[in-house]
What does this fold into?
Amino acid sequence: MHTIDSLLANNRAFVRAQLAHDAAFFEHLAEGQHPDFLWIGCSDSRVSPNLLTGTGPGEMFVHRNIANLVVPTDMNLLAVLQYAVEVLQVNHVIVCGHHGCGGVKAALGGHSHGLVDHWLHAVRETEQFHHARLAALDDETRLRHLVELNVIEQVHNLGKTSIVQRAWAARRRPFIHGWVFDIGTGGIDPLTRMISNDEELLEACKFHRAGLGPAAAAPARPPQAQPAAQAGHASPAPRAGVAP
Ligand code: CO
It folds into this structure.
């Protein structure tokens, strides 16, 4: 177990180790950042983006919140996204959920957790939409599916932001990606292909619906129209074309 003092001692050891390896390490780091990736992940202490992906300081711009949500009215997320896409010009934006996510689990249960319940509203909406299929699954499988559905939902929200839509129109970047991390194995599974236009975004949603197994055989309804002019503001989530 670490203490506050041990964190600072660890920092001093880190500085010594880095300088021993590369005497100019911090001078170079101070010159600026040119990350190629924006990571949007969960605040969960077990999901450490640099550690999981073998990236170091300066290589990944990071935004984290409970349950890795892309809420189109979240100024914090939008500011990070705008800066990453338009100023840093990252080529990849990754939404990474994780199995065993406490935020998603809380949204599945009927218990109140205080203020965080408001934040998790979007996850409950996803659960409600897919309730008929999810309710037929055992608890563990249901949580795993909802974690993955939530990632796809957030990928869709991300792709529909005016920031990403403008960037796609101007330079066909960034690619956006939906991933899920399995804490039990340490592995990351991509849930989507690389997405850099509306067609690929829609395809990613179809891909996920197909991946839901026997429950995906439920009757389909046509995908909802997504007018580009309204992109980025409270646009509906993918709402996978299966009746709730
Ligand atoms: Co989580």
The chain is about 45% helix and 10% strand. Residues 42, 44, 67, 98, 101-103 surround cobalt (II) ion (CB under 6 Å).
